[in-house]
Each structure stands twice: as structure tokens, then as C-alpha cells.
Amino acid sequence: MSQPASPPGRPGPSPWWRSAVFYQVYPRSFMDSNGDGIGDLAGVHSRLGYLELLGVDAIWLNPVMRSPMADHGYDVSDPRDIDPLFGDAADFDALVEAAHARDIRVVMDLVPNHVSTEHPWFREALRAGPGSRARQRFHFRDGRGPDGGEPPNNWPSLFGGPAWTRITEPDGTPGQWYLHVFAREQADLNWDDEDVADDLEKTLRFWLDCGVDGFRIDVAHGMAKPPDLPDHEAWETNELLGHSPSDPRFNNPEVHDIHRRIRRVLDAYPDAVAIGEIWVDNHELFAEYLRPDELHLAFDFHLTLAGWDADAVRVAIEKGLAAVASVQASPTWTLSNHDVDREVTRYGGGAVGTARARAMMLVALALPGAVFVYNGAELGLPNVDLPDDVLQDPVWERSGHTERGRDGCRVPLPWEGKTPPFGFTSAASTWLPQPPEWSALTVEKQLEDVDSTLSLYRRAIELRSEQKEFAGDEVGWYGSPPGCLAFRRTGGLTCVLNAGDRPVELPEGTLLLASTPLTGRQLTPDAAAWLI
Ligand code: BGC
Asked: Who lines ligand 1 at CB under 6 A?
């Protein structure tokens, strides 16, 4: 594909991903083509026209590789094949080709921290016995206690329960334990083993040769483990979204060698991008992942975690900018993804939550850097309160039914019509049930309504790519009334957010776009506006 022109005002050619709008496709929930109630690759292909209309630069596909689906694809059993649930290699090639024909890049998910316990390596390790070469690709250890009946250390799984599972040895006796920081079906790989790195390189080249434009790297701060897997005494938190800096499961310095290896492969494909999922709060440590020979981009989750509060949003933006400043990397902005509650719900739900999500979308798209939009955010979808018996996230079982997990943000998209399945599938039902009230939020309905959230997204993305005022990497802050924030881009765009409880007067400038209708120059609460 040809190199797109630099964004307005930026000297010289700029890589396409630096200020791209990425659209995250959760393949199970985007569009079903074969009538099984679960989304698939041909479904994504059939809706590329929609994505072109939305104006996004790239899609990031959550995992579509072969997997028993214990964690919806993040338990990979063959990293170089497509899971039949989503289609086959021909469907994948056709999707990539058709996306490129519309100037949409395709980024795949890559899961280097762990593999499925159905992966041939793990099966071989079970058969091969303690001390074998095959077990070295994983973290197998003898248990503690008199009969080895206790886990080798005190690490918890992020999905609940211990991070260790005991196996039965080939001779039928209770055996060693293996490490799994996530579900027990997701065995952590031992990155000190040369096979592991070699195989990942093979996987990278395989998909790059298929034409993909890069990778979103899962748990990219997690692959390297401390050599002796020590106990940790201070388990203050056990969440991916906010683990403590001393958590031994993450951010071990050896992880950077792994990123350098990945980067060396990508450098042979000059347009390809590596985007890391890095849950590291400290700026200096975060920036290390973005050194010139490591990742190109890393997800910044400060905006995702900030509540509806102007000061918190400003701090999140400042942190996001500061985190990349020392390495001259591009910032990234994410309001939601498949692991967190949808923003409409986080900001209060209902009409208020929707208004705030619309406003925050204008804030994110006004900032310099890359923006990630999770499918359905452009429709203003809220989280869904699902009944217990349909929950599928492994978190639900592993937490002993104390944590409901992430299914509420993964419900299939409503495309058209007045009743579920809203054109998502020809089946009678969808893999997670859609609420009947989503009849008001279908793509069909919102395309016809100039005031819909979808129309606002389309317009915002269009302006962002066309207007010269979006140029430049600097963000300058205006003084603003309590509960509000206002910043100005080098190119001249001003963004104002009113998270307070009374209308505020807009600063000087011509109104470009607002998340709500304006009365004169008054910006009402729960709204944002762009001015030039
Ligand atoms: C992904 C999750 C997944 C986990 C384990 C994450 O950070 O985004 O959806 O469950 O990694 O692979």
C-alpha cells in the first residue's frame, strides 16, 4: 500500500499509524455471516463499507487464530491458523485484500505471553514428564508442602484463584504444577527458552507475509518472569488494569529484549506497526517500551480509567503526553475496549452517560496521536446487564461467581431492524443476548439521524483528518471554569469540555463541532466542543 500523506502541518512523511484512528473489531460481536450467532471474518468483510464510511484508518482484530476459546481466542492453540469459528485462511486473505482496497489497514492480535493448554507444545510437555526439554517451554515446578500438594509460589491468577494448576503425570501420579497468570487453559510460556522466541518470529513473519499491517501485542509487559518465580508478600491489587509496580508477574526488565527481537522482525516490513498492551503507570518505565528499537505505540489507559471529572481527565491527558515525551513516541488514547465497561455506562448510563461519552470522544479525537475506538462505541452502546446463565467470561467461573467479568461490553452489535438479532445474524439468537431497547441504537437508525452518536463520530473523524488545525504535537492548556477543561493544539484547534453542572461561555473562535446542540455560545454540562 502506498504511504499516506503526512498529516497537515507535519514536516516530512509520517508513519501512517502515528495519528491513525484504529477501530477495534471484536470478531465474535461485529457481524455474523454464516448464521451461527457468532461473528466471523466474512462478516467483517461484508461491513467494510461501514468502516470506510466511519472513516477509520485501520482495524485491530481481536484474536482469530485457532483456539479452544476458553478466553475467547486469547488461548491460542495454533498461532498460524484461523479458527474455524471465524472462517479460514481464504476468508482472512480476502478480508485483508478488501480492507486494503478501501485504504483500511489491518492489525492482528498477537498473544506471546501464553498458549492454550491444547497447544501441541503443552500436550507434549504433559507427556514428556518432569525435567524434560518439552517442559522447559513452560513454567513447570514441583509443588510445596510434604507431598508437593501446594502451589510453587503465592501468585494469584488475574482471573481468580491461584496462578498454578497441578497436573497428573503420565504414570498417573499427582505431578508438577504449571504457571498460568490468566485462566488455567492459558499456560504461560517460558521466554528463556529459545524455541519460544523462534516460534514467535515465525508467527510474525507468517502474518506479515499474509499482508497484515502490524500487531496489537497482548500483555506486552508480561512475557518475562523473574528467574526464581519468588513469592510476593504485597498483593495490594490483583487486576490487570491496575497492578502494583512491584507485582512480580509484570514489567520485568528482560521483557525489553523480547520487544527488541520482535522489532527486528518488523523492521523488515517498514510500514508495519507493533502496539503493546502495557499496563505500566510509571512514565519512565512505560517509555522504555517505546524506545526506538522496541514498540511503535503502546496503549495508554489513563483516559479509560479517569472518571467523569475535568481534573481527572486533564491529569490523564497530561500523563498520556508525558509518558511518551521522553522518547518522542506518539501518544495513544482509548476510552474503552473488550476488557472494560463501556464508557456510556462508566459515565453514568442513560442519556447522561451517552452525552458524556459523546463529549469524551471529542476530547480523545482532538488530541495528538493515535485513537482507538472499540466497536459499538460509535453507536453509544452501553454495557448490558446479562443474566447469570449466559455469562461466558472465564472470570465468572474462576472468581467463584463473585466477578461478572467482561461479557457486558461484548454483546453483538445491532445493525438494523426493530428486534434482536438486529441484522447481526440470520440465527434466531446471538452468542450473548442483545437487549430489545437497542432498536433505538442500530446502525441503520443512526445513519439516518444527523444528531446520532454515529453521525457525530463520522463527522469528528472526517474533520480530524481534513482540518489543518489538528496539526502539531503540542497541547496548551487554557484557564477554564471549575469542572471544565480547555486545550489548544499547535495547529489551532481548541477543545472545550464541560464536566461541570452549569453552562459555560465558549472561548473565541469559530465552532467546528459540538457533542450537543448549542444555545448561542453557551456550552451546556456533559458536552464538548471544537473551535478553530
Ligand atoms: C486481553 C484480555 C485477555 C488477557 C489474557 C488481555 O489483556 O485484552 O482480553 O483476557 O489479555 O490474554
From this structure: 71, 74, 111, 182, 218-219, 240, 277, 338-339
